[in-house]
Amino acid sequence: MTQTQKILVTGATGTVGRQVVAELLARGHEVRALTRDPAKAAFPAGVEVVEGDLTQPDGLAPALEGITGLHLITFGGAAFTPLETGPRILELARSAGVRRITVLHGGGPTPLEDAVRAGDGVEWTVLMPVEFMANALEWADGIAASGEVREPFVSRLSAMVHEGDIGAVAAVALTEEGHAGQEYVITGPELLTVGDKVATIAAAVGREIALVELTEEQAVEQWRAAGLPEDVVGFLLEAYGNTPEVGRTVASTVEKVTGRPARTFTQWAAEHADAFKA
Fold first, then answer.
1. 268, pLDDT greater than 70
2. 159 DSSP 8-state letter
3. What's the longest Cα–Cα distance across the chain?
4. What global pTM score does this model have?
């Protein structure tokens, strides 16, 4: 057991942030969750919720008091703009006595991550997860309403990761020795096609689910109709149509860091089965 520590989690209401909070609590640590709107945040009992905005770092000093570890995201504000405030956040963290920082990689170079990597006096770890299993929730409405999933590139392979495992790796890196200066690629334990994922969800909910393969043109039309901006549409075409090797290669990071195997998509689907039911 590691000594109880107090960790500040930014992006605490997000898909990964909530898992970092949960894992730290499960490991017996104290958690302070930073959010721009505490009134709308719902966290487990025992979490200290504080108001703050990474785009306005000078207001973060009180939130950093007594903190030993800091989990950071690289985007801030309602528009999820890449943060330019990394140097000031690092300065405040060092002044507060923060020992360790984890950064959730934003998919490419970002000013905040660059600042953390270049900073002195704090042990940093970069978390680089591949596709989240939680992305499958985008299919929930279609499955519940019509019993089908409509996707392009259905044979593409993904080493998708349970978001809880991202939180677990973060929690260890924030509270234990031996993770300074590491870049952790975080994946699940297996490669899955879209068909594999659909079949797994079908088994979890106990009903048949049809997989309808879309052409690229049909997919673009569907994404635009859903209101996705053009840069996101372009990203999806590249990510799904030409998945980089890192996204389709299983890494052993979860087991090496946490001491237990990465969770499977079968486990994830069972946990979220109700989301896919009418």
1. yes
2. -
3. 57
4. 0.95
Residues 6+ apart with CB under 8 A from 3: none
Closest CA to 188 of 200, 180, 179: 200
Calpha distance 111→124 (Å, rounded)? 15
Contact by Cβ (8 Å): 156, 240: yes
* pLDDT above 80: residue 20: yes
Strand runs (DSSP E) across the chain, as ranges? 6-9, 30-35, 48-51, 69-72, 75-76, 81-82, 100-104, 123-129, 148-151, 182-186, 210-213
- Give the amino acid at 176: E
Token digits of residue 90: 């690092």
* Cα→Cα distances 85→23, 38, 114, 196, Å: 27, 22, 11, 41
Give tens-digit pLDDT for 75-84.
987 777 899 9
The tokens describing 52, both together, are 């703050």
First to last CA, the chain: 43
* Contact (CB, 8 A) for 7 and 28: no
Closest residue by Cα to residue 199 from 139, 262, 153: 139
Q: What is the pLDDT of residues 118-162, one digit of tens each?
A: 988 899 999 999 999 999 999 999 999 999 999 999 999 999 999
C-alpha distances in Å from residue 219, one per residue of 67, 144, 223, 270:
45, 20, 6, 28
Angstrom distance (rounded) from CA 137 to CA 162: 12
| Euclidean distance between CA atoms 275 and 153, whole angstroms | 24
- The pLDDT assigned to 2 comes to 60
